[in-house]
Design brief:
alpha+beta; CBS-domain; three-stranded mixed beta sheet; two-stranded antiparallel ribbon; 5 strands; CBS domain-containing protein
């Protein structure tokens, strides 16, 4: 296992994002259709927050809906905005951060995804799943 491998080697580079003005219904559809659990929230190129599927579950009955069902009950979603639900105080890392350093951050914090930001621009996202897949490849 290489000790100085940068996170850019394993991060997701084609990032699915939400605009901070999008609706929560849009977020749930993305979570379900793309089979992802974290979506950076942006305004232009600037990252404003991170929305997780768990954030939606906290305010809705989304977990009672069939994962394969594309219909969404929007009653609860109309009561909140993405900006009210998303995590705002983000920890981000540059793409040169080592995989080991990212693993240490994720192991000690209570979140499972980090935005990767270079020159104030979102260039990727790295998740605990990315780290696990990297470890699997090493064996």
């Amino acid at each position: 296992m290489k000790k100085r491998t940068p996170i850019s080697e394993i991060m997701t580079k084609t990032v699915i994002t939400l605009n901070h003005t999008d609706e929560l219904e849009t977020a749930e559809r993305l979570f379900k259709t793309k089979k992802i659990r974290h979506i950076p929230v942006v305004s232009g190129d600037e990252i404003k927050g991170m929305l997780s599927y768990t954030d939606l579950l906290r305010i809705s009955f989304a977990d009672a809906v069939d994962e394969d069902d594309d219909s969404v009950d929007t009653v609860v979603y109309n009561m909140f905005t993405i900006e009210q639900v998303m995590a705002k105080n983000l920890v981000s890392v540059p793409s040169t951060t080592t995989i080991k350093e990212v693993a240490e951050i994720l192991a000690t914090k209570e979140f499972h995804a980090l935005p990767v930001v270079d020159a104030n621009k979102l260039v990727g996202i790295v998740t605990t799943t990315d780290l696990i897949n990297y470890l699997i490849e090493q064996f």
